[in-house]
Amino acid sequence: MALPNIIYSGPTNFAQFAFNGTLAVTVGDFMYYVTDDVRPLTSLSTGASEAADQLTISKVFAGVAKDARTVSETGAVATFPVMTDLVADYDCVSATFEIGDLIGVSWNGGSALANQVVTKVTQANLAIGYATKRYASATTRVQCRILSAVVPHAVGGIG
User: What pLDDT sits at residue 13?
Assistant: First the structure.
């Protein structure tokens, strides 16, 4: 799995969240908001299906980690930066994409959520973003716009 390539994230397109401090995070990880802090997707107990997890995450999706933390860096953090609106290249489940095709979070080929992999979805309530480039042939890396569900944006949005 290749790390995401951040193409654009404007200077005001991030928010400072609290972070619980006992979880490892890599720059580019998808983060969700729970209670009073953000966590990487892999810390969420999975549901009955990928679609069920996509629905759960789409409602609490905070954005993309702008910083990294190791498990040894214990202790809660009052401010952890999360990009809330960005364009990036992410690994994806093999598919063709048209500009505007919806993307959601993905299981890692089994029954666990992947922190940095997306998949094509057909319903807006399952999406965390959309494709920003056309791929006429199947690809395993897609350029997409990722939008936080927790931090509202004046322009855009999904669905």
Answer: 86
